From TrEMBL:
Superkingdom per UniProt: Eukaryota
Entry keywords, A to Z: Signal
Lineage: Eukaryota, Viridiplantae, Streptophyta, Embryophyta, Tracheophyta
Designated name of the protein: Reverse transcriptase zinc-binding domain-containing protein
Signal peptide stretch: 1-16
């Protein structure tokens, strides 16, 4: 999920690698590679994706939802756009850097 989301934002080089020690270590590492609005956006994206994955997992465990990578990726993309529209400036900044589709 992380690679797919970050790839869609042109940030695939920041995706966690198999040899990363922990989520915390990975987040610290990628956060230190950015600054300003990009750093704010990246931190917001990490929070959004982690929260979305946790929420999807809970719906699977407690509500019997079938796990769906495509479903969660679609949900995360929609949330990213909603957060950008709602004024999350860092996310809006990263989304603005993407080529027009």
């Amino acid at each position: 999920a992380w690679f797919s989301i970050l790839q869609g934002l042109g940030l695939q080089v920041l995706a966690p690698q198999p040899d990363e020690c922990s989520f915390d270590d990975w987040w610290d590492k990628v956060s230190s590679k950015a600054d300003g609005a990009v750093k704010k956006g990246l931190n917001s994206i990490v929070i959004l994706v982690a929260w979305s994955l946790w929420n999807h997992r809970n719906r699977c465990v407690f509500n019997g939802l079938q796990p769906s990578l495509n479903g969660i990726l679609s949900s995360i993309r929609e949330e990213l756009h909603q957060w950008g529209i709602a004024g999350a400036r860092g996310i809006a900044h990263i989304l603005a850097l993407l080529p027009a589709s």
